[in-house]
């Protein structure tokens, strides 16, 4: 658990006392984790030893340092601590020299940086120029100049070099952000295109507002009453003059950034483009964005659903090899937007549904779900809280030989397990992937499924009424004979099992008795009752066909300290355990 | 009921059930190791804890006894899910358990909890120390923990200056 450095009983003068500095480092960090920033700062003032304890990088890493005034900036510069997470929020800088000193002082320490409106400064890029350890960058309210000199190639090169470790970029923009120059955004994304480790771009509010060329103007200041205050900034500034619309947008910059990635190994890190709210997209912009993400295998996350409605007339532009869509949307809107029957190459349609979306399923008879399987697509069926069992039962009653994936997400008040099990075994015989969540089926129903769905390759079971018997039938778990006759062990093509036991009725012995004989590639097991498995269980699993085949294994931890040595016994394990 | 004999640094022996002892990561490992190396499966393990004296060991075992039905917290839960027991709120029993202890005993208890890998106990003792620091002035902290300022020259003033940016925030 934790190493022990010193465990002497302090009773030098007969009076035991508490000395934090005598605690092992890891306990000091644990203890300081309970303290707020103010308490930690007080602790620094008590004595030199405690100052050194608080100044440990492991403790300082825990908290973001928020700077909102020039005074704070000035004082943080004097600090000898290497803070690495800064929030520069609404910072108005009169004294540029402070900022320069800040950049010099902390530039090489910063790993995480959030900048909210750095007014009065054109130095964001000068900061980035020095941040060679930056992993996360968040720019909010982009109403400031990114560059003093956008054409400065040397500066760009330096920033490109420095942002090599950047993994996450968040850009908050709004409709007011028209002040920044198109050229600067272009260069910014050009720089990003060289950031080979960037995995996530998040643009919480994504809109198609033109970026306009900023025209230099002298603001007229009407009041200077508070000019003596250190954080003074001009107010009642005259509005900038009308400026020319170049038609360039943030969306286009993002699109260019995505499409400029040539697919080589060095430019394939971006996995997610998170756009929580899309608004004011014109024409087929969303379609272009979705296609671009699809081409580069980027997950387009959190799209607001009404975008799909607008796609109705633009499907002709849809790329023919559009085979995978990851979106979050109401199925009704998806149906209206996507003429699914025309998408001959569609293979997977993944819809993350919630309460209201499922209400739509149950109440809308014209959703063409029954047609999907004719295209050979994945059939995902969320039934949670639908309140209309009849429709779902009706959908299950049709024979669907081309449906390979079925997800039943149940929370019905009335029992329907018998009907559903019978329908699934009769009508979905070619299923390869079955996902049952909160299904009220009992062991006999599960056994019936395993007996009839012989092609299953992947099974996910969450909640429900399953017990050990659902996997092993009526066989004696302690007996190794007749393994192949046990219902679950008959699934010879099965390679991926994910079980979440929320009733605590699936036990360790079931894992030993059933799964260790199966050549699985991936196995996940969670249980409310089993917080740890015995060493014996892990050893038996390791020395069985399971131990030789499994590549991904996640289960309650072993109750011993030799886990590293133990997991070396699992020859094909690719991901770390747990 | 399988038992295990746990012996403190000053030679006091405590006979506890193996089920209870296994709530401690360290004791659990010791028991497993003993089982592996011993030919006689009925033999009673004997574990000597050379760094914990009897008074403290008794307190740890008392705490384990009270919490024997709690779920075992993984050692790294802190990093993943925030604080364990301490965040969830201490029970009245825990408060009564810690109330009569002076900080010297708490210090030893923290070291013992760390050594024996009893995360729940480590959390509530750390939380107790936290309550002695939070909301107190520097002098009050010094008094509570019997600390003397050993800053030289203007070192303290310098540290105070370093803190200003956050204290005045």
From TrEMBL, chain A:
Protein name per its UniProtKB record: F-box domain-containing protein
InterPro entries assigned to the protein according to its UniProt record, in alphabetical order: F-box-like_dom_sf, F-box_dom, LRR_dom_sf
Superkingdom as given in the UniProt entry: Eukaryota
SMART domains documented for this protein: FBOX
Domain F-box stretches: 17-63
Organism: Orchesella dallaii
Coiled coil segments of this chain: none
Automatic annotation (TrEMBL), chain B:
Source species taxonomy: Eukaryota, Metazoa, Ecdysozoa, Arthropoda, Hexapoda
PANTHER family: SKP1 (PTHR11165)
Top-rank taxon, per record: Eukaryota
Pathway(s) the chain acts in: Protein modification; protein ubiquitination
InterPro entries according to UniProt: SKP1, SKP1-like, SKP1-like_dim_sf, SKP1/BTB/POZ_sf, Skp1_comp_dimer, Skp1_comp_POZ
Domain SKP1 component POZ: 4-69
SKP1 component dimerisation domain segment(s): 119-166
Family from the record: Belongs to the SKP1 family.
Organism (species): Orchesella dallaii
Name of the protein in question: S-phase kinase-associated protein 1
Listed Pfam families: Skp1, Skp1_POZ
Record keywords, A-Z: Ubl conjugation pathway
């Amino acid at each position: 658990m934790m190493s022990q450095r010193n465990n002497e009983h302090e009773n030098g003068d007969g009076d035991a006392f508490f000395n934090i500095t005598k605690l092992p480092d890891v306990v000091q960090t644990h203890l300081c984790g309970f303290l707020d920033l103010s308490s930690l700062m007080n602790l620094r003032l008590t004595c030199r030893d405690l100052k050194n304890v608080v100044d440990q990088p492991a403790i300082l890493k825990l908290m973001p340092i928020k700077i909102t005034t020039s005074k704070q900036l000035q004082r943080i510069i004097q600090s000898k601590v290497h803070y690495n997470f800064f929030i520069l929020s609404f910072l108005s800088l009169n004294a540029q020299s402070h900022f320069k000193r800040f950049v010099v002082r902390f530039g090489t320490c910063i790993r995480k940086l959030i900048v909210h409106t750095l007014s009065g400064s054109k130095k964001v890029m000068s900061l980035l120029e020095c941040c060679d350890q930056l992993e996360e960058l968040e720019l909010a309210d982009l109403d400031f100049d990114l560059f003093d000199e956008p054409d400065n190639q040397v500066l760009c090169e330096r920033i490109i070099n420095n942002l090599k470790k950047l993994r996450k970029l968040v850009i908050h923009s709004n409709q007011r952000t028209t002040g920044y120059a198109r050229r600067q955004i272009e260069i910014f994304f050009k720089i990003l295109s060289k950031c080979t480790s960037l995995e996530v771009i998040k643009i919480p509010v994504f809109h198609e507002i033109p970026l306009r060329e900023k025209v230099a103007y002298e603001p007229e200041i009407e009041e200077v009453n508070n000019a003596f205050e250190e954080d003074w900034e001009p107010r009642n500034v005259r509005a900038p003059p009308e400026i020319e619309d170049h038609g360039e947008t943030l969306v286009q910059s993002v699109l260019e950034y995505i499409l400029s990635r040539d697919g080589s190994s060095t430019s394939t890190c971006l996995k997610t483009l998170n756009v929580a709210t899309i608004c004011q997209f014109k024409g087929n912009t969303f379609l272009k964005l979705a296609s671009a993400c699809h081409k580069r295998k980027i997950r387009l996350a959190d799209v607001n659903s009404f975008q799909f409605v607008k796609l109705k007339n633009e499907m002709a532009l849809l790329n023919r090899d559009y085979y995978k869509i990851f979106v979050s949307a109401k199925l009704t809107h998806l149906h209206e937007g996507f003429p699914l029957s025309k998408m001959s190459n569609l293979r997977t349609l993944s819809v993350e549904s919630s309460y209201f979306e499922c209400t739509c399923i149950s109440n809308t008879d014209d959703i063409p779900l029954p047609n999907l399987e004719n295209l050979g697509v994945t059939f995902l069926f969320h039934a949670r809280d639908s309140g209309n069992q009849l429709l779902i039962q009706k959908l299950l009653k049709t024979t669907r030989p081309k449906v390979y994936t079925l997800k039943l997400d149940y929370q019905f008040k009335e029992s329907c397990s018998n009907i559903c099990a019978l329908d699934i075994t009769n009508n979905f015989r070619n299923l390869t992937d079955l996902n049952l969540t909160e299904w009220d089926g009992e062991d006999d129903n599960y056994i019936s499924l395993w007996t009839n769905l012989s092609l299953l390759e992947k099974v996910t079971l969450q909640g429900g009424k399953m017990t050990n018997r659902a996997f092993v039938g009526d066989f004696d778990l302690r007996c190794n004979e007749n393994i192949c006759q046990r219902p679950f062990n008959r699934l010879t093509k099965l390679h991926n099992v994910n079980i979440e036991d929320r009733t605590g009725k699936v036990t360790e012995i079931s894992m030993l008795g059933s799964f260790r004989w199966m050549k699985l590639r991936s196995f996940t097991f969670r249980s409310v009752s089993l917080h740890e498995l015995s060493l014996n269980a892990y050893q038996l699993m390791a020395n069985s066909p399971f131990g030789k085949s499994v590549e991904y294994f996640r289960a309650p931890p072993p109750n011993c300290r030799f886990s590293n040595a133990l997991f070396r016994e699992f020859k094909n394990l690719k991901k770390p355990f747990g | 009921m399988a038992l295990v004999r746990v012996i403190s640094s000053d030679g006091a022996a405590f006979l506890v059930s193996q089920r209870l002892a296994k709530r401690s990561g360290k004791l659990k490992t010791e028991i497993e190791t003993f089982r592996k190396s011993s030919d006689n499966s009925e033999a009673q393990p004997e574990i000597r804890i050379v760094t914990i004296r009897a008074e403290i060991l008794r307190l740890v075992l008392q705490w384990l006894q009270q919490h024997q039905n709690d779920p075992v917290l993984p050692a790294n839960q802190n990093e993943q899910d925030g604080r364990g027991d301490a965040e969830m709120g201490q029970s009245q029993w825990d408060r009564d358990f810690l109330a009569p202890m002076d900080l010297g005993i708490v210090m030893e208890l923290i070291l013992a909890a760390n050594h024996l890998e009893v995360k729940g106990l480590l959390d509530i003792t750390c939380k107790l120390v936290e309550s002695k620091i939070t909301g107190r002035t520097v002098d009050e902290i010094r008094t509570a923990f019997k600390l003397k300022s050993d800053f030289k020259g203007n070192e303290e003033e310098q540290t105070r200056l370093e803190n200003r940016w956050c204290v005045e925030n």
